[in-house]
Every structure is written in structure tokens, then in C-alpha cells.
Amino acid sequence: MGMNIGSGGGSGEPEPMMDINTTPLIDVMLVLIIMLIITIPIQLHSVNLNMPTGTPPPPTKDPVVITIDVDFDGTVLWNGEALADRAALEAKLQNVAAEPDQPEVHLRPNKLVEYKSVAMVMASAQRLGVTKLGIVGNEQFVK
Questions:
Q1: 70 CB-near residues (< 8 Å, 6+ apart)
Q2: Which of 32, 35, 37, 66 is most enclosed, with most CB atoms within 10 A?
């Protein structure tokens, strides 16, 4: 925008002459119209997906859940049954990992247990190939 202020005649107060330069405004409007024309076809493109039809078959059976509790003193319980040592735990985890359809293993540590006991169970499960392992019931370990 521009403004020209004239000197006026010989009177005391000169009159301002104001001329607005509209060329930059017209240029901006033309650029916006061109951008709109270019982007309209892009917005109208759609992606066609071939979705499956019909209903999926119902699950054949409920998932098997194995619960591993870690007590406050580090004792490991397999579905409520105390295990003697780490070798017994690893033998049971190896049997779980060998199944073609692995059961879900829910690890429930006591909130007073040391983390090394929980980490030992998790490391054994991972090393032996248990894929469906989760910690439930204690927010201390879920982060």
C-alpha cells in the first residue's frame, strides 16, 4: 500500500492525496486462486480398499491363562503351586513355549518383592521363547 501526500496550494493546511496501490493485493489474490485450483484435485482423490465381507468365525476356545505369582520373599507360585527353584520354573516355561498355541502367562508380583525376582522370571520367559507374557495387578512394575 502506498500513500502520496501532496504539497497542496499556497494555503496554510495542505490536503493529503491518498492513492492505494492495489497491484500487490491483486497479485496475492491470484496466487491464492491458483493454489486453490491446484489443490482441489488432490483433495478429491480417494483410496479404494477391498475390505473382507462376511462375518469372521467365532473363536474356537477361550485362551488358557497361566498365573505366575512372585511373593514378597521371592517365592514363585505357578497357578498357586510353589516352585522349588529356578530350574522348576524354567522347565514349566519351556513346556509353555513348546506348545503351538501358547497360553497367556500373567505375572503378578507382590508390591513388596524386589525387582530382581520379577526380572529373573521375565528374563527366563523371554530366553525360553514365551511370547504371551504380561504383568498384571501391580502398577509398581507397569511403566
A1: 76, 77, 107, 108, 109, 110, 113, 117, 118, 121
A2: 66
* Coil vs helix vs strand at 28: helix
Q: What is the DSSP string of 96-137?
A: HHHSSSPPEEEEEE-TTS-HHHHHHHHHHHHHHT---EEE-S
pLDDT tier, 84 (very low <50, low <70, confident <90, very high otherwise)? confident
Q: In whole angstroms, what is the distance from residue 92 CA to residue 84 CA?
A: 12
Do residues 128 and 93 lie in contact, with contact meaning Cβ atoms separated by under 8 Å? Answer: yes
Angle (CA) 114-126-96 rounded to 5° is 105
Residue type, 43: Q
Residues 6+ apart with CB under 8 A from 122: 107, 133
